[in-house]
Amino acid sequence: MAGTARHDVELIQRSKQQLSQTTDPIERLRLQCLSRGSSGIKGLARTFRIMDDDGSKTLDFQEFQKGLNDYGVPLKKEEAMEIFQKLDKDGSGTLDFNEFLEALRPPMSNARKQVITEAFRKLDKTGDGIVTVEDLRNVYNARHHPKYQNGEWTEDQVFRAFLDNFDSPYDKDGKVTLEEFTNYYSGVSASIDSDGYFVVMMRNAWKL
């Protein structure tokens, strides 16, 4: 129901190939994240969120560089500085977290953004902007899962595994926000050229 394994393999191969051909630092960072698969950008976002101790939703250059290193996408200091200065539009010496993510996500058409938001709203039964196990009980039938059927997992374990698709591998909290959901699907989107195909895939996957 999330991005298919085939799309992930294609995305990783394509990103690694493009990485050797591009010199733009923002594009290089984007491709480094995408060469980890659909959840690459989402994982970097989570790393930065953990580092935001004071909850300011901004990063200074040192935090920015440390986050890249912690996540395993180290850039030369000059490259990191070039990205930072390009995105620090008001020259304040800090990056707005959401603006950075917006710049890093592969560009998506409005049709794609709309269907991603639609799928999230269908999942978010309580309408509080966060999808949890409780939300999933009404929209996702865990009893069809092979590990539930063979007695290996409980229903709750199936739900958690499902949410983990969208969660960062380094900090799984069992809660998925629209931002995380969009970060995940921007990765999937990068592996699909046609808007029409992406929208149909999402509608079929989420029964929209």
Automatic annotation (TrEMBL):
One Gene Ontology term of the molecular function aspect: calcium ion binding
Record key words, sorted: Calcium, Metal-binding, Repeat
Record domain EF-hand: where: 39-74, 75-110, 111-146
Annotated InterPro entries: Ca-bind, EF-hand-dom_pair, EF_Hand_1_Ca_BS, EF_hand_dom
Taxonomy, superkingdom: Eukaryota
SUPFAM superfamilies: EF-hand
PANTHER family linked: CALCYPHOSIN, CALCYPHOSINE LIKE
Name this protein carries in UniProt: Calcyphosine-like a
Provenance organism: Erpetoichthys calabaricus
